[in-house]
Specification:
four-stranded antiparallel sheet; single chain; alpha+beta; five-stranded mixed sheet; 414 residues; 18 helices; globular
Length: 414
Amino acid sequence: MDGRTAEMLHTKGATFVFLGVPKGTVFGIDLKCWRTDEEFRGIRLIPPGMHYIYYASASETEIDDVSQRSGFFQYFNENDIIVKMWDKKTEDVSKEVVDEHTVERIRENLNNIDRYLAPYPYDIWSRWHCLTRQISEALAKKLSPEQGIIRSEEFHSIPDSERPRGIKKSKECSEEEKQKTMENKEEPSQGSSEHFNKGESSSSPRHSGTRRLSRMTEKEREDAMLPNLKPVEGTVMRFTEIPKNKYPPGSSPMEITKHHLDQSYTLELMIAQHDEPLHIIGELQFAYTIFLIGHYWNGFDHWRNLVVLLCSCEDALDKYRDVFIHFIATIQHQMKELPLEFLCGIEMEQNVFYKKFREFFRNVYSAKSNQKLVIMIEKFKKSLADLFQWEFPNDDTDDEDEKPVVVEMEEINE
Protein backbone atom coordinates (compact mmCIF):
# COMPACT_ATOMS: atom_id res chain seq x y z
CA MET A 1 0.00 0.00 0.00
CA ASP A 2 1.45 3.38 -1.00
CA GLY A 3 1.47 6.38 1.31
CA ARG A 4 -1.33 8.17 -0.53
CA THR A 5 -3.67 5.19 -0.21
CA ALA A 6 -2.76 4.73 3.44
CA GLU A 7 -3.56 8.38 4.15
CA MET A 8 -6.91 8.08 2.36
CA LEU A 9 -7.88 5.03 4.41
CA HIS A 10 -6.87 6.71 7.67
CA THR A 11 -9.06 9.71 6.89
CA LYS A 12 -11.99 8.01 5.13
CA GLY A 13 -11.73 4.33 6.04
CA ALA A 14 -14.61 2.66 7.91
CA THR A 15 -14.48 0.43 11.00
CA PHE A 16 -16.31 -2.77 11.84
CA VAL A 17 -16.38 -3.59 15.54
CA PHE A 18 -17.37 -7.14 16.49
CA LEU A 19 -17.56 -7.60 20.26
CA GLY A 20 -17.54 -10.84 22.21
CA VAL A 21 -16.30 -13.11 19.40
CA PRO A 22 -14.84 -16.32 20.91
CA LYS A 23 -11.25 -17.30 20.29
CA GLY A 24 -10.82 -19.58 17.28
CA THR A 25 -13.90 -18.32 15.40
CA VAL A 26 -13.51 -18.19 11.64
CA PHE A 27 -13.98 -14.56 10.63
CA GLY A 28 -13.63 -13.04 7.21
CA ILE A 29 -14.24 -9.95 5.14
CA ASP A 30 -14.42 -10.15 1.35
CA LEU A 31 -11.73 -12.53 0.03
CA LYS A 32 -9.79 -12.96 3.29
CA CYS A 33 -10.52 -14.87 6.49
CA TRP A 34 -8.70 -15.70 9.73
CA ARG A 35 -9.07 -17.48 13.06
CA THR A 36 -9.69 -14.95 15.79
CA ASP A 37 -7.61 -14.67 18.95
CA GLU A 38 -8.70 -13.48 22.38
CA GLU A 39 -7.95 -9.82 21.59
CA PHE A 40 -9.86 -9.61 18.32
CA ARG A 41 -12.37 -6.74 18.21
CA GLY A 42 -12.93 -6.16 14.49
CA ILE A 43 -11.52 -4.58 11.31
CA ARG A 44 -10.34 -1.02 10.62
CA LEU A 45 -9.30 0.96 7.52
CA ILE A 46 -12.09 -0.56 5.43
CA PRO A 47 -12.42 1.11 1.99
CA PRO A 48 -15.85 2.73 1.59
CA GLY A 49 -18.23 0.58 -0.45
CA MET A 50 -19.90 -2.82 -0.40
CA HIS A 51 -18.32 -5.63 1.63
CA TYR A 52 -19.23 -9.15 2.69
CA ILE A 53 -18.65 -10.12 6.32
CA TYR A 54 -18.83 -13.77 7.32
CA TYR A 55 -18.05 -16.04 10.24
CA ALA A 56 -18.31 -19.63 11.49
CA SER A 57 -18.21 -20.80 15.09
CA ALA A 58 -15.61 -23.44 15.92
CA SER A 59 -15.37 -26.22 18.48
CA GLU A 60 -13.25 -25.52 21.55
CA THR A 61 -11.80 -29.04 21.43
CA GLU A 62 -11.68 -30.02 17.74
CA ILE A 63 -9.58 -27.75 15.52
CA ASP A 64 -11.29 -28.77 12.27
CA ASP A 65 -14.82 -28.81 13.71
CA VAL A 66 -16.27 -25.64 12.17
CA SER A 67 -19.94 -24.83 11.59
CA GLN A 68 -21.40 -23.61 8.31
CA ARG A 69 -20.52 -20.10 7.28
CA SER A 70 -22.98 -17.30 7.90
CA GLY A 71 -22.60 -13.80 6.52
CA PHE A 72 -24.13 -10.56 5.35
CA PHE A 73 -23.48 -7.74 2.94
CA GLN A 74 -22.63 -4.43 4.58
CA TYR A 75 -22.25 -1.10 2.81
CA PHE A 76 -19.73 1.21 4.50
CA ASN A 77 -19.79 4.96 4.02
CA GLU A 78 -16.73 7.09 4.75
CA ASN A 79 -15.74 6.97 8.45
CA ASP A 80 -18.59 4.61 9.27
CA ILE A 81 -18.45 2.64 12.49
CA ILE A 82 -20.63 -0.48 12.43
CA VAL A 83 -20.91 -2.36 15.72
CA LYS A 84 -22.16 -5.94 16.12
CA MET A 85 -22.31 -8.21 19.17
CA TRP A 86 -21.74 -11.96 19.39
CA ASP A 87 -24.52 -14.07 20.91
CA LYS A 88 -22.98 -16.93 22.92
CA LYS A 89 -26.23 -18.88 23.13
CA THR A 90 -26.88 -19.04 19.40
CA GLU A 91 -23.19 -18.88 18.43
CA ASP A 92 -24.15 -16.23 15.91
CA VAL A 93 -24.24 -12.48 15.50
CA SER A 94 -26.75 -11.00 17.93
CA LYS A 95 -30.09 -9.86 16.53
CA GLU A 96 -30.15 -6.97 18.97
CA VAL A 97 -29.36 -3.62 17.37
CA VAL A 98 -26.53 -1.77 19.09
CA ASP A 99 -27.87 1.63 20.20
CA GLU A 100 -26.40 4.93 19.00
CA HIS A 101 -25.09 5.78 22.47
CA THR A 102 -22.86 2.69 22.45
CA VAL A 103 -21.66 3.42 18.92
CA GLU A 104 -20.71 7.00 19.85
CA ARG A 105 -18.91 5.80 22.97
CA ILE A 106 -16.86 3.42 20.85
CA ARG A 107 -16.14 6.18 18.35
CA GLU A 108 -14.80 8.41 21.13
CA ASN A 109 -12.56 5.60 22.41
CA LEU A 110 -11.51 4.32 19.01
CA ASN A 111 -7.86 5.16 19.61
CA ASN A 112 -7.86 2.98 22.73
CA ILE A 113 -9.19 -0.11 20.94
CA ASP A 114 -7.31 0.48 17.70
CA ARG A 115 -4.67 -2.11 18.63
CA TYR A 116 -7.40 -4.78 18.86
CA LEU A 117 -8.62 -4.07 15.31
CA ALA A 118 -7.02 -5.86 12.36
CA PRO A 119 -6.28 -3.69 9.29
CA TYR A 120 -8.30 -4.40 6.18
CA PRO A 121 -6.22 -6.57 3.78
CA TYR A 122 -5.94 -3.94 1.08
CA ASP A 123 -4.11 -6.28 -1.31
CA ILE A 124 -7.47 -7.94 -2.12
CA TRP A 125 -9.41 -4.71 -2.66
CA SER A 126 -8.93 -4.47 -6.43
CA ARG A 127 -10.05 -8.09 -6.99
CA TRP A 128 -13.01 -7.67 -4.66
CA HIS A 129 -14.13 -4.43 -6.30
CA CYS A 130 -14.10 -6.06 -9.76
CA LEU A 131 -16.29 -8.89 -8.47
CA THR A 132 -18.91 -6.72 -6.74
CA ARG A 133 -18.98 -3.25 -8.28
CA GLN A 134 -22.62 -3.59 -9.46
CA ILE A 135 -24.01 -4.73 -6.09
CA SER A 136 -25.71 -1.68 -4.63
CA GLU A 137 -26.87 -1.40 -1.04
CA ALA A 138 -30.52 -1.55 -2.13
CA LEU A 139 -29.95 -4.57 -4.38
CA ALA A 140 -28.13 -6.53 -1.65
CA LYS A 141 -31.00 -5.88 0.74
CA LYS A 142 -33.56 -6.91 -1.89
CA LEU A 143 -31.86 -10.24 -2.64
CA SER A 144 -30.82 -11.19 0.90
CA PRO A 145 -33.16 -13.07 3.26
CA GLU A 146 -35.51 -10.89 5.29
CA GLN A 147 -33.46 -11.60 8.42
CA GLY A 148 -30.39 -10.29 6.63
CA ILE A 149 -28.12 -13.25 7.40
CA ILE A 150 -27.10 -15.50 4.50
CA ARG A 151 -26.68 -19.18 5.36
CA SER A 152 -28.10 -22.54 4.34
CA GLU A 153 -31.88 -22.41 4.62
CA GLU A 154 -33.43 -23.38 7.95
CA PHE A 155 -36.52 -25.60 7.96
CA HIS A 156 -39.50 -25.95 10.25
CA SER A 157 -39.51 -28.96 12.56
CA ILE A 158 -42.94 -30.52 12.12
CA PRO A 159 -44.78 -32.28 14.98
CA ASP A 160 -45.00 -36.08 14.97
CA SER A 161 -48.72 -35.98 14.20
CA GLU A 162 -47.98 -34.28 10.86
CA ARG A 163 -45.25 -36.68 9.73
CA PRO A 164 -46.19 -38.78 6.66
CA ARG A 165 -47.13 -42.40 7.24
CA GLY A 166 -48.02 -45.40 5.12
CA ILE A 167 -51.55 -46.60 4.66
CA LYS A 168 -52.43 -49.13 7.31
CA LYS A 169 -55.35 -51.49 6.64
CA SER A 170 -58.07 -51.86 9.24
CA LYS A 171 -58.36 -55.20 11.01
CA GLU A 172 -62.04 -55.25 10.02
CA CYS A 173 -61.14 -55.17 6.35
CA SER A 174 -63.07 -58.05 4.70
CA GLU A 175 -61.65 -60.70 2.45
CA GLU A 176 -63.73 -59.20 -0.37
CA GLU A 177 -62.08 -55.77 0.10
CA LYS A 178 -58.63 -57.38 0.17
CA GLN A 179 -59.45 -59.15 -3.10
CA LYS A 180 -60.55 -55.84 -4.63
CA THR A 181 -57.31 -54.22 -3.55
CA MET A 182 -55.35 -56.98 -5.29
CA GLU A 183 -57.46 -56.49 -8.41
CA ASN A 184 -56.81 -52.74 -8.32
CA LYS A 185 -53.05 -53.35 -8.38
CA GLU A 186 -53.41 -55.31 -11.60
CA GLU A 187 -55.70 -52.84 -13.38
CA PRO A 188 -53.90 -50.80 -16.07
CA SER A 189 -55.90 -47.63 -15.52
CA GLN A 190 -56.94 -46.70 -12.01
CA GLY A 191 -58.38 -43.34 -12.95
CA SER A 192 -61.13 -44.45 -15.36
CA SER A 193 -64.83 -44.04 -14.64
CA GLU A 194 -65.21 -47.81 -14.98
CA HIS A 195 -62.88 -48.30 -12.04
CA PHE A 196 -64.84 -46.00 -9.73
CA ASN A 197 -68.10 -47.72 -10.67
CA LYS A 198 -66.72 -51.06 -9.50
CA GLY A 199 -66.96 -50.39 -5.83
CA GLU A 200 -65.15 -48.01 -3.49
CA SER A 201 -65.95 -44.33 -3.45
CA SER A 202 -63.04 -42.06 -4.41
CA SER A 203 -63.84 -40.00 -1.33
CA SER A 204 -62.80 -42.82 1.01
CA PRO A 205 -59.34 -41.83 2.33
CA ARG A 206 -58.43 -45.38 3.35
CA HIS A 207 -59.22 -47.02 0.00
CA SER A 208 -58.03 -44.13 -2.20
CA GLY A 209 -54.75 -44.10 -0.30
CA THR A 210 -54.32 -47.84 -0.83
CA ARG A 211 -54.99 -47.53 -4.57
CA ARG A 212 -52.64 -44.57 -4.81
CA LEU A 213 -49.79 -46.45 -3.12
CA SER A 214 -50.41 -49.51 -5.29
CA ARG A 215 -49.73 -47.43 -8.41
CA MET A 216 -46.47 -45.98 -7.07
CA THR A 217 -42.99 -47.15 -7.90
CA GLU A 218 -40.62 -47.99 -5.06
CA LYS A 219 -38.88 -44.60 -5.36
CA GLU A 220 -42.21 -42.76 -5.41
CA ARG A 221 -43.26 -44.57 -2.23
CA GLU A 222 -40.00 -43.54 -0.56
CA ASP A 223 -40.43 -39.92 -1.68
CA ALA A 224 -44.03 -39.92 -0.40
CA MET A 225 -42.76 -40.85 3.06
CA LEU A 226 -40.40 -37.87 3.25
CA PRO A 227 -41.68 -34.80 5.13
CA ASN A 228 -42.56 -31.79 3.03
CA LEU A 229 -40.55 -29.30 5.06
CA LYS A 230 -40.91 -25.57 4.60
CA PRO A 231 -38.06 -23.08 5.13
CA VAL A 232 -38.24 -20.91 8.23
CA GLU A 233 -39.74 -17.55 7.32
CA GLY A 234 -37.08 -14.90 6.77
CA THR A 235 -34.22 -17.31 5.94
CA VAL A 236 -34.91 -17.82 2.21
CA MET A 237 -32.84 -16.08 -0.46
CA ARG A 238 -34.90 -13.76 -2.63
CA PHE A 239 -33.33 -14.27 -6.05
CA THR A 240 -35.19 -12.99 -9.08
CA GLU A 241 -37.09 -15.94 -10.52
CA ILE A 242 -36.07 -16.94 -14.03
CA PRO A 243 -39.30 -17.33 -16.07
CA LYS A 244 -40.10 -20.92 -17.05
CA ASN A 245 -41.94 -19.91 -20.22
CA LYS A 246 -39.33 -18.60 -22.62
CA TYR A 247 -41.81 -17.21 -25.12
CA PRO A 248 -44.80 -14.81 -25.07
CA PRO A 249 -48.31 -16.24 -24.73
CA GLY A 250 -49.89 -17.17 -28.05
CA SER A 251 -46.57 -17.64 -29.85
CA SER A 252 -46.53 -19.66 -33.06
CA PRO A 253 -44.34 -22.78 -33.38
CA MET A 254 -41.76 -20.78 -35.30
CA GLU A 255 -41.73 -18.06 -32.62
CA ILE A 256 -41.39 -20.63 -29.84
CA THR A 257 -38.37 -22.14 -31.55
CA LYS A 258 -36.86 -18.68 -32.01
CA HIS A 259 -37.28 -17.74 -28.34
CA HIS A 260 -35.67 -21.00 -27.21
CA LEU A 261 -32.66 -20.31 -29.41
CA ASP A 262 -32.46 -16.61 -28.56
CA GLN A 263 -33.55 -15.96 -24.98
CA SER A 264 -33.60 -12.16 -25.22
CA TYR A 265 -37.30 -12.23 -24.30
CA THR A 266 -36.54 -14.05 -21.03
CA LEU A 267 -33.74 -11.58 -20.24
CA GLU A 268 -36.17 -8.73 -20.87
CA LEU A 269 -38.58 -10.20 -18.30
CA MET A 270 -35.75 -10.54 -15.77
CA ILE A 271 -34.55 -6.97 -16.26
CA ALA A 272 -38.13 -5.69 -15.86
CA GLN A 273 -38.09 -7.02 -12.28
CA HIS A 274 -35.15 -4.77 -11.38
CA ASP A 275 -34.93 -1.02 -10.91
CA GLU A 276 -32.34 -0.71 -13.68
CA PRO A 277 -30.83 -3.06 -16.30
CA LEU A 278 -27.37 -3.29 -14.70
CA HIS A 279 -28.94 -4.78 -11.57
CA ILE A 280 -29.09 -8.09 -13.44
CA ILE A 281 -25.27 -8.00 -13.42
CA GLY A 282 -25.39 -7.03 -9.75
CA GLU A 283 -27.49 -10.14 -9.09
CA LEU A 284 -25.00 -12.24 -11.05
CA GLN A 285 -22.22 -10.88 -8.83
CA PHE A 286 -24.29 -11.34 -5.69
CA ALA A 287 -25.02 -15.02 -6.42
CA TYR A 288 -21.39 -15.73 -7.28
CA THR A 289 -20.12 -14.03 -4.12
CA ILE A 290 -22.30 -15.94 -1.67
CA PHE A 291 -21.29 -19.18 -3.38
CA LEU A 292 -17.57 -18.45 -3.55
CA ILE A 293 -17.19 -16.91 -0.10
CA GLY A 294 -20.33 -17.86 1.78
CA HIS A 295 -20.26 -21.50 0.63
CA TYR A 296 -23.94 -21.20 -0.27
CA TRP A 297 -24.56 -23.84 -2.94
CA ASN A 298 -27.84 -22.40 -4.23
CA GLY A 299 -25.84 -19.30 -5.09
CA PHE A 300 -23.82 -21.38 -7.55
CA ASP A 301 -26.99 -22.74 -9.17
CA HIS A 302 -28.47 -19.27 -9.64
CA TRP A 303 -25.20 -17.84 -10.90
CA ARG A 304 -24.81 -20.64 -13.45
CA ASN A 305 -28.42 -20.16 -14.65
CA LEU A 306 -27.84 -16.42 -15.13
CA VAL A 307 -24.63 -17.09 -17.08
CA VAL A 308 -26.51 -19.53 -19.33
CA LEU A 309 -29.28 -16.98 -19.88
CA LEU A 310 -26.96 -14.09 -20.75
CA CYS A 311 -24.93 -16.27 -23.11
CA SER A 312 -28.12 -17.31 -24.93
CA CYS A 313 -29.12 -13.83 -26.12
CA GLU A 314 -28.60 -12.25 -29.52
CA ASP A 315 -31.30 -9.64 -30.14
CA ALA A 316 -30.63 -8.08 -26.73
CA LEU A 317 -26.93 -7.51 -27.44
CA ASP A 318 -27.51 -4.13 -29.03
CA LYS A 319 -30.40 -2.95 -26.84
CA TYR A 320 -28.60 -3.77 -23.58
CA ARG A 321 -25.04 -3.12 -24.72
CA ASP A 322 -23.92 -1.84 -21.30
CA VAL A 323 -25.31 -4.96 -19.62
CA PHE A 324 -23.21 -7.22 -21.85
CA ILE A 325 -20.11 -5.06 -21.53
CA HIS A 326 -20.32 -5.42 -17.75
CA PHE A 327 -21.21 -9.09 -18.11
CA ILE A 328 -18.01 -9.84 -20.02
CA ALA A 329 -15.90 -7.83 -17.57
CA THR A 330 -17.56 -9.56 -14.60
CA ILE A 331 -17.45 -13.13 -15.88
CA GLN A 332 -13.80 -12.79 -16.82
CA HIS A 333 -12.90 -11.90 -13.22
CA GLN A 334 -15.23 -14.57 -11.85
CA MET A 335 -13.65 -17.34 -13.90
CA LYS A 336 -10.24 -16.34 -12.53
CA GLU A 337 -11.49 -16.75 -8.95
CA LEU A 338 -13.51 -19.94 -9.59
CA PRO A 339 -11.92 -22.98 -7.88
CA LEU A 340 -10.34 -25.11 -10.60
CA GLU A 341 -11.91 -28.30 -9.23
CA PHE A 342 -15.28 -27.09 -10.52
CA LEU A 343 -14.08 -27.37 -14.11
CA CYS A 344 -11.21 -29.87 -14.02
CA GLY A 345 -11.94 -33.41 -15.12
CA ILE A 346 -14.80 -32.35 -17.43
CA GLU A 347 -14.29 -32.81 -21.16
CA MET A 348 -14.23 -29.43 -22.89
CA GLU A 349 -17.10 -30.29 -25.22
CA GLN A 350 -19.20 -31.50 -22.27
CA ASN A 351 -18.59 -28.47 -20.06
CA VAL A 352 -21.69 -26.27 -19.83
CA PHE A 353 -19.63 -23.09 -19.41
CA TYR A 354 -17.46 -23.83 -22.43
CA LYS A 355 -20.51 -24.60 -24.56
CA LYS A 356 -22.40 -21.47 -23.51
CA PHE A 357 -19.36 -19.20 -23.91
CA ARG A 358 -18.86 -20.58 -27.40
CA GLU A 359 -22.53 -19.87 -28.17
CA PHE A 360 -22.18 -16.36 -26.75
CA PHE A 361 -19.16 -15.61 -28.91
CA ARG A 362 -21.03 -16.77 -32.02
CA ASN A 363 -23.99 -14.57 -31.07
CA VAL A 364 -21.74 -11.53 -30.76
CA TYR A 365 -20.14 -12.15 -34.14
CA SER A 366 -23.38 -12.91 -35.97
CA ALA A 367 -25.14 -9.89 -34.50
CA LYS A 368 -22.34 -7.62 -35.78
CA SER A 369 -22.16 -6.16 -32.29
CA ASN A 370 -20.41 -3.04 -31.11
CA GLN A 371 -16.65 -3.20 -31.71
CA LYS A 372 -15.97 -2.83 -27.99
CA LEU A 373 -17.88 -6.06 -27.32
CA VAL A 374 -15.86 -7.88 -29.96
CA ILE A 375 -12.56 -6.68 -28.51
CA MET A 376 -13.65 -7.67 -25.01
CA ILE A 377 -14.62 -11.21 -25.98
CA GLU A 378 -11.33 -11.69 -27.82
CA LYS A 379 -9.52 -10.86 -24.58
CA PHE A 380 -11.90 -13.11 -22.67
CA LYS A 381 -11.21 -16.02 -25.04
CA LYS A 382 -7.49 -15.60 -24.48
CA SER A 383 -8.04 -15.53 -20.71
CA LEU A 384 -10.04 -18.78 -20.87
CA ALA A 385 -7.34 -20.39 -23.00
CA ASP A 386 -4.70 -19.45 -20.42
CA LEU A 387 -6.81 -20.61 -17.47
CA PHE A 388 -8.34 -23.84 -18.78
CA GLN A 389 -6.63 -24.47 -22.15
CA TRP A 390 -9.99 -24.03 -23.86
CA GLU A 391 -9.95 -23.49 -27.61
CA PHE A 392 -12.67 -21.63 -29.49
CA PRO A 393 -12.62 -22.25 -33.26
CA ASN A 394 -13.70 -19.32 -35.39
CA ASP A 395 -16.68 -21.01 -36.98
CA ASP A 396 -20.45 -20.83 -36.83
CA THR A 397 -21.11 -24.57 -36.70
CA ASP A 398 -23.39 -25.95 -34.03
CA ASP A 399 -22.61 -28.88 -31.80
CA GLU A 400 -24.95 -31.84 -32.32
CA ASP A 401 -26.91 -31.16 -29.12
CA GLU A 402 -27.16 -27.43 -29.87
CA LYS A 403 -28.93 -27.76 -33.22
CA PRO A 404 -32.47 -26.33 -33.41
CA VAL A 405 -35.19 -28.62 -32.11
CA VAL A 406 -38.37 -29.03 -34.14
CA VAL A 407 -41.37 -28.06 -32.01
CA GLU A 408 -44.29 -30.47 -32.36
CA MET A 409 -47.77 -28.98 -32.55
CA GLU A 410 -49.03 -31.40 -29.87
CA GLU A 411 -46.52 -30.00 -27.38
CA ILE A 412 -47.73 -26.45 -28.01
CA ASN A 413 -51.38 -27.29 -27.57
CA GLU A 414 -50.81 -28.89 -24.17
